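Extended Data, panel c. Modelled sequence:
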Amino acid sequence: MKRRCRDKNFVKYPEYGGKGITYDPRWEKFKYFLDDMGERPEGMTLDRYPDRKGNYCKSNCRWATPTEQSNNRNLTYKKGKAKNPVKGVRWHSTKNTWISYKNIVKGSKVEVLYRGKDFFEAVCFRKSYELKEL
């Protein structure tokens, strides 16, 4: 969190500190971070929630699973200049296809439900998967 927000040489800095994202100044001292957030539960990481564009602070952070993190990330993908805000569907620029996928399974691996040129089909595959999960 600190590195993302203040280390201009860090690869992720442009997405965080470079966009003005900061963290609670009290959190400079780990004791106050620990007081606010508690111990990190196993398998969880710090997530800015409910406002994924907001700062790191007690009221906007939680411990989240990889799936929760994935669902909270920036879900706007670009195909040329078109944007896609649909959860579980994204444009895969290196393969030049739309994919719909299940939530993260292990680490960064995803199970692909659909891969192809049709955005509408990708969304349909994802929505049918969500209905089956209910």
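The helical segments are 2-6, 30-37, 66-72, 119-133. This feature is highlighted in the accompanying rendering.
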